[in-house]
């Protein structure tokens, strides 16, 4: 066997060993994500996607990386699962249409008033009862949670969870950077309680029940607040999604720079 062949064989053995050692990590990440997803999502699909991510991580990992393999693999596993979720949209098209309608109404109100759109005004313009509105907010919270800037056809979604830059070309990397900046600005412009829910959900990775305990409200109320934030963000990112590349070109409220508060939430 040549030196090159021996090296490739050792490299393959090393990758196989990394996969065996870190297979439990795939299950941990999958079940952690399942705590924040609808019951219709199959954990087996997430685990399968995660194993592919783990295999790719094992093949591509370089030992002189600053991050440990577990950290590196965790990013790739999670990214593979999120990619699977984006491809497997479990939400009916009617829900997507309703979310778009709500976001457009919110955008128009905020253009006209320069203030956060009020729930009562949104309901009035949509001709919805409080029960219908709250049900629509719950749908908005679960309708492709990972996508706020998807085109109307539901394709090419840009995710809250920004992709791993190692897998992006120069153009895609610039686009992701632009989305990240627009998203940070849009989240910073949300009402304080919506900012807090988004921070606890996406940064601290708490589930709705845990967030409810922090805020002192029910899980269903957290779901409504989350839905309000998703609809408002979609409205305020309209300019970015439509090619304006600027949050304010979407006509939403002016940018704020405040980060979500870690202090006591407002009741």
From TrEMBL:
Transmembrane segments: none
Major location (coarse): cytoplasm
Keywords carried by this UniProt record: Cell projection, Cilium, Cytoplasm, DNA-binding, Flagellum, Sigma factor, Transcription, Transcription regulation
GO terms classed as biological process: DNA-templated transcription initiation
PROSITE patterns: SIGMA70_1 (PS00715), SIGMA70_2 (PS00716)
Keyword hit for Cytoplasm: yes
Name of the protein this chain belongs to: RNA polymerase sigma factor FliA
Organism of provenance: Aerosticca soli
């Amino acid at each position: 066997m040549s030196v090159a062949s021996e090296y490739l064989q050792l490299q393959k053995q090393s990758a196989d060993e990394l996969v065996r050692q870190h297979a439990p990590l795939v299950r941990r990440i999958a079940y952690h994500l399942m705590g924040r997803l609808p019951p219709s999502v199959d954990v087996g699909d997430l685990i399968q996607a995660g194993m592919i991510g783990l295999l790719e991580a094992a093949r591509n990992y370089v030992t002189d990386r600053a991050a440990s393999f577990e950290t590196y693999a965790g990013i790739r596993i999670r990214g593979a699962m999120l990619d699977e979720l984006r491809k497997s949209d479990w939400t009916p098209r009617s829900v997507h249409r309703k979310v778009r309608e709500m976001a457009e109404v919110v955008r128009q109100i905020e253009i006209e008033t320069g203030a956060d759109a009020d729930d009562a005004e949104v309901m009035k313009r949509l001709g919805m009862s409080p029960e219908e509105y709250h049900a629509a907010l719950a749908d908005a919270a679960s309708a492709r949670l990972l996508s706020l800037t998807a085109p109307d056809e539901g394709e090419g979604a840009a995710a809250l969870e920004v992709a791993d830059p190692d897998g992006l070309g120069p153009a895609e990397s610039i686009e992701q950077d632009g989305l990240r900046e627009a998203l940070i600005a849009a989240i910073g412009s949300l009402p304080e309680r919506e900012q807090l829910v988004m921070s606890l959900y996406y940064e601290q990775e708490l589930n709705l029940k845990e967030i409810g305990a922090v805020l002192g409200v029910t899980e269903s109320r957290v779901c409504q607040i989350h839905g309000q934030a998703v609809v408002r963000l979609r409205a305020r990112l309209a300019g970015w999604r439509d090619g304006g590349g600027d949050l304010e070109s979407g006509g939403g409220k002016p940018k704020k720079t405040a980060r979500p508060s870690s202090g006591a939430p407002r009741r």
